[in-house]
Design a protein that fits this description.
The chain has a single domain, classed as 3-Layer(aba) Sandwich (Rossmann fold). It contains 5 helices and 7 strands. With 125 residues, the protein is an alpha/beta fold. A 5-stranded parallel sheet has the order 2-1-3-6-7, sandwiched between helices. Strands 4-5 form a two-stranded antiparallel sheet.
Length: 125
């Protein structure tokens, strides 16, 4: 089962999206702040779904911590200006989705990233 680390402090979004991801067959570990996320990063994940505005820091701190990792990061944020989108992508995110988001579109993006990751893993065997 593919594992997703989902970092989101808005519990309404966190609960609804966690439910949808689990319905898609993913195992989801949900955190609501940077401190929890950093502790969870000791484990292995297939994807990190990351909000930027967190109560104890910035999602960019998590991007920096994952720098050099092959774990794909998808930023999910209400911050929609070009400078922040570019910064997120330059810090290693493979995608940046702005809130409000369309659920089916987000799930399709995640499936595509997982497929590409699986193909990459298969070709390295």
């Amino acid at each position: 089962m593919k594992r997703i680390l989902f970092i989101e402090d808005d519990q309404t979004i966190a609960s609804a999206l966690t439910f949808s991801l689990e319905e898609e067959g993913y195992e989801v570990v949900q955190c609501s702040n940077v401190e929890q996320a950093m502790a969870e990063l000791e484990q292995s994940f297939d994807l990190v779904l990351l909000d930027l505005g967190l109560p104890d820091g910035s999602g960019y701190d998590i991007c920096r911590a994952l720098n050099g990792s092959d774990t794909p990061i998808v930023i999910l944020s209400a911050i929609d200006d070009e400078a922040n989108i570019v910064m997120g992508l330059e810090l290693g995110a493979v995608d940046y989705v702005t809130k409000p988001f369309r659920l089916r579109e987000l799930l399709t993006r995640i499936r595509g990233i997982m497929r590409r990751r699986e193909k990459k893993d298969d070709s390295s065997i």
